[in-house]
Amino acid sequence: MIKLRLDPSSGVATYLQLVHQVKHALRLGVLMPGDRLPTIKEVVSDLAINPNTVAKAYRELEHEGLVVGRPGLGTFVQRSLGGGSTADHTRLCRDLARWVHDCREAGLDQGDMEALFASVLADSAQEGIA
Amino acid sequence: MTADRTVRMFGGSGELTAPEQSPTALEAIGLAKRYRGTWALRDCTMSVPAGRVIALVGPNGAGKSTFLHLVAGLITPTRGSVRVFGEPVGQRAEALARVAFLAQDKPLYDSFTVAEMLRFGHHLNPGWDDALARQRLAELDIPLNRKVGKLSGGQQAQVALTIAVAKQPDLLVMDEPLANLDPVARHDVMRSLMAAVAETQMTVVLSSHVVSDLTNACDWLVVLNRGQVQISGEVDELLATHRMLSGPAELADGVAARMPMISDSRSERQADLLARTGPGTPLLDPRWKASSVSLEELVLAYLRRPDTTSLPHPTLTISDR
Amino acid sequence: MLWLTWRQHRMQVLVTTALLAVLGAVLLISGLGAADFAAQSAPAADCVADTPECGAYRGEMNERIRLVGELLGWLPLLAPAMIGAFWGAPLLAREFEQGTHQLTWTQSVTRRRWLAAKIVGLGAAVTLGGLVLAGIVEPWLAAFDVPPYNVDRFDMSWFRLVGIMPAAWWLSAFVLGMAAGALFRRTLPAMAVTLAVCALAFFGLLRSPSSYAPPERAVQAEVIDELEPEGSLHVTSYWIDRSGVKYTSQEAELALAGPCGTDETTKKYAKCSFSHGYRRVAEFHRASRFWQFQWTEAGILLIPALALGGVAVRRTLRPRI
């Protein structure tokens, strides 16, 4: 079972942080179909957050068809996330590592790289819409 | 009851009921209280749906304690009325059974043992859930045979909270529950409170003058200022309808004329306006940048402008999401 | 509720019970000793003539009763003061002081019921305690009441230790303390005021019973005349001459010094004074007025105490902070 965390300085709404974490775990394969998510009580007694927030996050995940609630039993992972095969992941990861290496060669620090990556990501999203 | 509770405790998704459909938990109409000629609370009107954790914030002396004492039935209003789940509060056994109150200093009988405090709760409350109380204290490692006066501040707060929760109220009212607690105890009390809310689905009203304590725990915000309600609304919605707008100072007046401004700080070139933009992103000159605000910023901005008494959202209706 | 009352006040109950038990033991030993002595040494003669045996017997009994009586003499002052200060004053004051009224008044029991349980429960205990005190003092006094020594309950040394007097004093002191606690809301000032008022009441009423009704007046009719029937409460005595002019005993003594000499204890002197037309006059209350006076004093104490208690209860029930 995964343990949810909060980043109070992120500025992202709490329920979205929870949604992102579950999705992240689904992408990384930490959560697999059939796994049970922590109950609302478990989450709130861990994080001291409002149960409605957790319920909202779980509803969102349920709405997206990622999890399903079984009354009396818990909330279970329905399907996994993440496009591409494992082989693709390995290849892309290698490419990215090479890119990072190149950046360092060119004298970019971590901040520069993150900014560059974010801007490329944003541009590509814009193209996608257009 | 026990079976039902077990389902709710371990059920997880069984809890996914939409709070929007809940009835009104707390309703105050024209509530006012005067002490020896000074109004501690003036014309306070609000309505809060059930199943919420309501943060009551405001500066010291804003009337928070007075309001909570009125809700708990400890004092009677000079004018107006309070209703809890549609029933007036007051000195009747059934009205008292519905509301639990945790006073500011979390008073307990110091000479009682923890077990005797539970017995106190058991004797004075027909709806008392002794198993729940014992289980909570066991989880918190609080020895039953210890004298209450010998417990740490955090443990005393937990015992007081346990008594309030085991009473099985529909509404739990807490006056500054986190005051005088160290950071660890604050977190622990909040965790166990949230667990209790998840278990029992009770409505909670808690006051604080520190907004950051409540950011993640509360989903409804009520701001009291100078004895009046300044904000009452769902936290997510408040955050969604307010934006910090940053842009060229020369265009600020135009923007300010279009929507309510909560705070307005301008330099020669730039203006930072905290505006109630309403749902969705406002259509503005591209030179303006709209960013979201934190709950703390929002509350501070309102408190600095006590004249902005307009409520950000009609209090009696609940938005669809 | 009864459990809570007991739990909160068991210390007072236990200490009072223990003190009564100790007193009971002391009085039992003393009383048995006196009864034993009286059975062995009471002179058969009726002691109209003062024989040495009679004198010795009276002296010994007097010595025995004085030994414990001096201790008991403090009780009519001390016992109510302690009851008021330790049973009454903390009853509400301590709740207000520690804020626990906010805990107790928000359980599912109405303030009225809570207060009723406390006042009725403890009031009954206090009254019972007072009756028990009278109940152990009376047989002890009876043990000494063996002719020719006689003890009477109307005597001011014993009047406030027998009948309903201890119960009335204790109960009014308890109610007074409770009221002081409700009005001051702090234990120490409430205790101090209770002690002060108890002392004032004690010294104020110390010699009052003789004025609870107009006394009877008896004038000496023959030389040897017992003016006051046995068991009476003596009010005053003086002399009158033939023309009815009043003399104090000193004035009469002075006036008779010429004709009758100065040794007042002799029969000759008595005859002489009688023949000169001087008559002794006594004012007194008959023993049959004992209960009337007990109830009069009980009323004097209880009526103001209960009125004050009523005010305090009303103030406590009316929801304020």
Description:
The complex is a heterotrimer of chains A (130), B (321) and C (321). In chain A, a hairpin with a 3-residue loop joins strand 2 (67-70) and strand 3 (74-77). In chain A, helix 1 packs across helix 3 (51-63). Chain A is mainly alpha-helical. Chain A is built from five helices and three strands; from the N terminus they run αβααββαα. Chain A has helices at residues 14-28, 40-47, 51-63, 86-105, 110-129; strands at residues 36-37, 67-70, 74-77. Chain A folds into two domains: 14-77, Winged helix-like DNA-binding domain superfamily/Winged helix DNA-binding domain (Arc Repressor Mutant, subunit A, Orthogonal Bundle); 86-129. Chain B is an alpha/beta fold and 321 residues long. Chain B folds into two domains: 2-226, 3-Layer(aba) Sandwich (Rossmann fold); 237-304. Chain B has helices spanning 2-11, 64-72, 93-98, 114-124, 130-139, 153-166, 183-200, 235-241, 252-258, 295-304; strands spanning 24-35, 38-49, 53-57, 79-84, 87-88, 99-102, 171-174, 203-208, 220-225, 228-234, 242-248, 261-266, 270-276, 289-292. In chain B, the strands form three sheets. In chain B, strands 6-7-8-3-9-10 form a six-stranded mixed β-sheet, sandwiched between helices. In chain B, helix 4 (114-124) packs parallel to helix 6. The longest helix of chain B has 18 residues, at 183-200. Mean pLDDT of chain B is 84; it is low at 1-20 and 312-321. With 321 residues, chain C is of the alpha+beta class. Chain C is built from eleven helices and four strands, in the order H-H-H-H-H-H-H-H-E-E-E-H-H-E-H. Chain C has a four-stranded antiparallel β-sheet with strand order 1-4-2-3. In chain C, helix 1 (2-41) packs antiparallel against helix 2, helix 3 (75-98) runs parallel beside helix 7 (165-184) and helix 3 (75-98) packs antiparallel against helix 8. Chain C is elongated and about 85 Å long. The A-B interface holds A 6, 8, 11, 13-15, 36-41, 44-55, 58-59, 62, 68-75 and B 7, 9-19, 51-53, 187, 190-195, 197-199, 215-219, 236, 239, 292, 294.
In short:
The complex is a heterotrimer of chains A (130), B (321) and C (321). By secondary structure, chain B is α/β, with parallel strands linked by helices. Chain B is built from 10 helices and 14 strands.
